[in-house]
Amino acid sequence: MIIGVAGPSFCGSTLTNCILGELPGVTGLGETHWILDRARDKPKRGKCFRHLDECPVFTPEVLSKLRAGGANNLYANLKRIVSPNVLVVSDKNTFQWGRFGCPDVLVFPIKPPATMLYSYVRRGKNLNNVVEQLASEWEKLLVLGEGRLMVPFDLTALAADPEHTVRELCARLGLEYSEEALRPWDSTSCFFGGTGRWPKFGREFRSTGLAWDAVFAKLKAL
Ligand SMILES: [Zn+2]
């Protein structure tokens, strides 16, 4: 089974990938599209985000095998070469899943609207365009996922009661719970993509990422 973390950029997909990736029998691979899309200006993106050139799993040889056959074969190659486990991919949007095929199950991280918008606005995006883009991407994802299990993952509830919220997610996905999933920042598992702030992620998650009233105040002050 492949679980896709679905949503627009900055929706909390890396966090969700890494939480799920800590569950028994689950491998969270993150934004695997970077295995194929090695942007010239972001060469690190084509490597394991956690270990870069030191990665014991995603060596240059393994990466080259994963690229064989192009986009159509990426997920099958990951299952065959990396892990037969339940795989989590946070390729997350309809553009990528048009290339790789839609995952079997979609998990939608849900952030409070103010935190979602703040992630864009602080990067200089126009608020009106952002609202339109977000609505349009979610709509396309819901159409893409029609007929599949689609599960929301409420990040506000996660911040308030991590164990209950992760247990509930596990139950809906038919996965076994493990408390490792509550400390994804302590993990050393390999994954692709991410926000670039992984070393500080624990603090980020607890301070600005989910303290939505503080973010809302910042948004109002812009
Ligand atoms: Zn690695």
Notes on the structure:
This protein has 222 residues and is an alpha/beta fold. Helices cover 45% and strands 13% of the residues. The protein has helices at residues 13-21, 33-36, 60-66, 74-82, 94-100, 113-121, 127-144, 155-160, 162-173, 201-209, 212-221; strands spanning 2-6, 26-30, 86-92, 105-110, 149-154. It has a five-stranded parallel beta sheet with strand order 2-3-1-4-5, sandwiched between helices. The termini are far apart. Bound molecules: zinc ion. The site of zinc ion has 7 residues, from loops.
Name a few traits of the molecule.
222 residues; five-stranded parallel β-sheet; 11 helices; 13% strand; binds zinc ion
Summarize the structure.
This protein is an alpha/beta fold. The protein is built from eleven helices and five strands; from the N terminus they run βαβαααβαβααβαααα.
